Inverse folding.
């Protein structure tokens, strides 16, 4: 906001001269001064009457934009001090911008003096002006009013139990909507029935925590004590959203307060919760390890007071704070695409953060950067921060440099409501406001509920060890229910105390009955169409992985899809180089009956699309491909118009979504995992720019991709494409860390593949939607070998069979002559094969392990028997402590095999091209030294 102290502190004649300039030509003065003069003119005209004024809104802050352009001298009944009028205007603006700094939002600690510069003297005003009437009162909806009344209203609205940040919003429509609605909201009162519902939900939240603390002493539950006002707030969000047309709410949150949300919002039965506290294993947990009770997900259909039905989903989340955020976003986007015709008003994502996490976890920054991008928008997310002012044992002043944990919201011009958690009515008002804003503008908004944490990080911690002063205050502090009950008593509701006691006893008895094994009937749940598709699938069995299913298509379909892939509209002019690429691919098919790698990939997508499946592919350079191979979308060289080669097969085909992502691995991979979680009939892929960069998303990989089925029985068919291979690119462009995925591979949880031919890649992709279950596939993709002629496949390989987990050596003519079998995977096959062919080595057989997990042991055993007289050697490019060597040594059964690798290394690869060539030559020569 501009500093106009030079005006408020100047001689009155100076501002009058500026006003005269405005009268002559409004465009010559500062826009903020112009706004003041326009509104001021209007206020005077309305107060005193003047037929020369232009028509304008009669109330509200919209008058700031009113153009009146009247000569004020003839409209006023008494002299006006324009300087002081402007001072009042500036005071109003300053309160709107900075009063959040003095708002009473902290229920525990004294307010920190952040020097908001809101003293009257800052605006050329003083106590002597308090009874003076100012036309500028019109800017706060009072008309001509005394300064003391203007000041009181400003303080009541902007410096009470809700502080708001919004004046950084550049979009004027949204800016004015927030200003108007907030000022209206803060003047509104709840009706008695509304207050009773708030008290009831608050009662549920408080007594539930009290009951668990009494009955399950010392057990971890990460209680909500101190922040229970979130329960009536969430209730209000869901009800308001339903009235605004929302049909589904998707919630992501960490463990703090999760059990309370599960029971009092999601309506998970209390006996289910109590059973989990007893450590009982669910009867349907036929595989996997499960997870602790405060990480589990849930879904329900909730009936609102206005008889609306809302589907509410709480996604499972590990202890890694905020990793669920992009999962929720991707899940919501997929649901919008599948169920609601991409109408984001029908589905609402709500993310519940902790204050330390929202300030400290970079994934939230990434997610906000995604929030308005075409490939990742979800129509706005409501962020609710349980700000208990402490992270584990770290005070907030050690946890961030910004004024607020929510300061990053300003980056995307998202408004922030800071609200006192001891005032449940204020929290509910903020919740209603947030939903209305999101539905109106489909953009993010934050609620920062400042509260406290009654106990330590978990119920076994002693918080006084690190915060003795703070916890001395908390120990004496009444809970939010007690605070609200007293508020109702003090504000003319004499039966509030009895009502609260009656609610408490009733709820306590209900909880005790559940604990005493009087079974509670679960709320009936109606499955959505995508959920029915998941119901049709099953869990995998060991026998499913002996051999892959048939995924071939007919030759006629291959050629039809190929021709459509290579065509483009008549009036479209692709870049000359791209056009030549397409011509060359056509010539390859015509002359040699072969299909290259990139076309094989696109054929897989096309073959799924024409059967009605959707395909979504994202990553930093996926449209063209990092290595300029895919060209799924091509550009018109004259108009720069984009043409998607995969959206033009038939009118009833599935949709092909492809997005070049922002420079993010963590949030984008999480988003795609969430997208894949929503519908098993979609093929969802994420491609790393280089496979080495996947470790930027390691949390998503560890907590969801490789373990979600075992923890939460949550299947997902996501495909990760990780360019991998040693080509002299140095330690950051060589290895996608195969060893890390193999270390996490167990219980048939993932496919880990390192594929060498176009047709095999085609079948691997189609296999993802052919199997009667879903597991992620991590494919270690080629780079230079995308164009290797021996990675191309004959048409016949697409029209018969399925994915080949192991490929025997097609060049072996006489098995009896084979002295050594080289077992390898991925790029090194081409280096070994080149030498085999060039040196005419008939005593060497090279077997490709196209799938490393689940390990195709039976197929390998059959080949071991075939080459029973030969020595076996595993050859890999990676150093000995990386790659698949350790995994095979532990898991390969019945095969006597040696290992040939680079020396163990701390870095993945050398950064010197000459050394790389030497190392690679050594591997190849050693492999053939028989």
């Amino acid at each position: 906001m501009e500093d106009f102290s030079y005006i408020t502190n100047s001689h009155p004649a100076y501002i009058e001269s500026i006003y005269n300039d405005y009268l002559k030509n409004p465009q010559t003065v500062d826009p903020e001064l112009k706004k003041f003069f326009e509104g001021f003119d209007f206020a005077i005209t309305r107060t005193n009457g003047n037929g020369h004024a232009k028509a304008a809104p009669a109330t509200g802050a919209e008058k700031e934009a009113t153009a009146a352009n009247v000569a004020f001298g003839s409209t006023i009944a008494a002299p006006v001090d324009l300087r002081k009028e402007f001072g009042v205007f500036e005071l109003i603006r300053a309160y709107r911008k900075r009063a959040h700094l003095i708002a009473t939002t902290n229920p525990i600690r004294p307010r920190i003096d952040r020097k908001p510069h809101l003293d009257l003297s800052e605006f050329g005003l003083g106590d002597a002006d308090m009874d003076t009437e100012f036309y500028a009162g019109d800017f706060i909806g009072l008309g001509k009013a005394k300064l003391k009344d203007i000041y009181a209203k400003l303080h009541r609205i902007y410096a009470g139990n809700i502080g708001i940040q919004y004046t950084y919003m550049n979009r004027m429509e949204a800016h004015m909507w927030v200003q108007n609605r907030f000022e209206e909201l803060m003047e509104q009162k709840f009706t008695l029935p509304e207050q009773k519902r708030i008290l009831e939900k608050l009662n549920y939240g408080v007594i539930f925590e009290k009951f668990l603390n009494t009955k399950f002493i010392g057990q971890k539950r990460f209680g909500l004590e101190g922040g229970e006002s979130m329960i009536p707030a969430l209730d209000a969000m869901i009800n308001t959203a339903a009235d605004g047309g929302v049909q589904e709410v998707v919630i992501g949150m960490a463990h703090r307060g999760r059990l309370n949300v599960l029971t009092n919002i999601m309506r998970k039965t209390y006996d289910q919760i109590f059973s989990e506290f007893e450590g009982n294993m669910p009867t349907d947990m036929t595989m996997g390890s499960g997870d602790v009770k405060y990480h589990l997900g849930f879904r329900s259909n909730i009936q609102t007071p206005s008889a609306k039905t809302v589907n509410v989903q709480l996604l499972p989340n590990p202890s890694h704070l905020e990793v669920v955020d992009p999962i929720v976003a991707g899940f919501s986007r997929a649901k919008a695409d599948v169920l609601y015709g991409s109408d984001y008003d029908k589905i609402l994502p709500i993310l519940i953060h902790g204050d330390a996490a929202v300030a400290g976890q970079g994934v939230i920054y990434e997610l906000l950067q995604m929030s308005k991008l075409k490939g990742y928008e979800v129509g706005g997310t409501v962020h609710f921060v349980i700000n208990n002012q402490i992270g584990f044992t770290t005070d907030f002043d050690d946890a961030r440099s910004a004024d607020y944990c929510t300061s990053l919201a300003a980056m995307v011009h998202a408004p922030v409501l800071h609200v006192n958690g001891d005032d449940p009515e204020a929290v509910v008002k903020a919740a209603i406001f947030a939903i209305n804003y999101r539905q109106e503008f489909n953009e993010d908004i934050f609620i920062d509920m400042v509260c406290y944490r009654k106990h330590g990080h978990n119920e076994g911690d002693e918080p006084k060890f690190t915060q003795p002063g703070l916890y001395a205050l908390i120990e004496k502090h009444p809970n939010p229910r007690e605070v609200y009950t007293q508020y109702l008593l003090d504000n003319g509701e004499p039966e509030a105390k009895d009502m609260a006691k009656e609610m408490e006893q009733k709820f306590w008895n209900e909880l005790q009955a559940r604990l005493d094994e009087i079974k509670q009937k679960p709320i009936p749940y109606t499955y959505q169409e995508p959920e029915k598709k998941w119901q049709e699938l099953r869990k995998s069995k060991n026998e499913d992985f002996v051999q892959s299913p048939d995924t071939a298509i007919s030759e006629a379909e291959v050629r039809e899809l190929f021709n459509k892939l290579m065509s483009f509209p008549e009036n479209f002019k692709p870049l000359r180089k791209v056009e030549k690429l397409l011509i060359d691919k056509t010539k390859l098919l015509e002359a040699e009956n072969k299909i290259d790698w990139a076309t094989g990939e696109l054929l897989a997508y096309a073959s799924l699309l024409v059967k009605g499946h959707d395909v979504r592919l994202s990553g930093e350079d996926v449209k063209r491909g990092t290595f300029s191979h895919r060209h799924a979308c091509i550009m018109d060289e004259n108009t720069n118009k984009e043409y998607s080669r995969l959206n033009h097969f038939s009118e009833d085909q599935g949709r092909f979504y492809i997005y070049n992502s922002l420079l993010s691995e963590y949030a984008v991979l999480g988003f795609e995992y969430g997208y894949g979680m929503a519908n098993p009939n979609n093929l969802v892929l994420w491609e790393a720019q280089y496979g080495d960069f996947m470790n930027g998303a390691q949390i998503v990989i560890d907590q969801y991709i490789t373990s979600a089925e075992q923890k939460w029985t949550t299947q997902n068919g996501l495909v990760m494409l990780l360019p991998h291979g040693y080509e002299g690119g140095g330690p950051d462009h060589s290895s996608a860390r195969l060893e890390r995925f193999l270390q996490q591979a167990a219980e048939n949880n993932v496919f880990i593949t390192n594929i060498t031919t176009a047709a095999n890649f085609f079948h691997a992709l189609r296999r993802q939607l052919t199997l009667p279950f879903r597991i992620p596939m991590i494919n270690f993709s080629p780079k230079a070998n995308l164009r290797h002629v021996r990675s191309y496949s004959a048409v016949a390989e697409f029209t018969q069979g399925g994915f080949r987990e192991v490929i025997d050596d097609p060049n072996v003519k006489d098995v009896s002559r084979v002295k050594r079998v080289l077992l390898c995977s991925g790029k090194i096959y081409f280096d070994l094969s080149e030498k085999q062919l060039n040196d005419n080595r008939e005593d060497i057989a090279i077997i490709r392990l196209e799938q490393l997990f689940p390990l195709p042991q039976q197929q390998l055993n059959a080949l071991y028997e075939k080459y029973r007289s030969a020595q076996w050697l595993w050859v890999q490019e990676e150093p000995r402590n990386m790659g698949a060597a350790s995994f095979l040594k532990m898991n390969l059964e019945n095969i006597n095999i040696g290992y040939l690798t680079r020396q163990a290394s701390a870095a993945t690869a050398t950064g010197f091209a000459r050394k790389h060539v030497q190392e690679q030559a050594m591997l190849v020569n050693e492999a053939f030294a028989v």
Remarks:
- The first strand starts at residue 133 and ends at 134.
- The mean pLDDT is 89.
